[in-house]
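Below is just one:
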Amino acid sequence: MQTANKLSNMQIELLKLFQYNLPDKQLIEIKNMLAKYFAKSATEEMDKLWDENGWNDSTMEDWANDHLRK
């Protein structure tokens, strides 16, 4: 378990970048790159769950309409 005074490996790597004064354009590019990476990871995990659980479009419709039944 991570404590408040221990940095994760991700935090350490990002701190290494902070020693450089990057132009705003590069900061935006890095932010977009990280966002795309995490979005891709989330999509791959969701695809895995779909395959493992046999979910389909009907499952999504059921989930979307579930709040209407309660």
Observations:
- The chain has a mean pLDDT of 88.
- The chain is about 75% helix and 0% strand.
- Residues 24-53 form the longest helix (30 residues).
- Helices lie at 9-17, 24-53, 57-69.
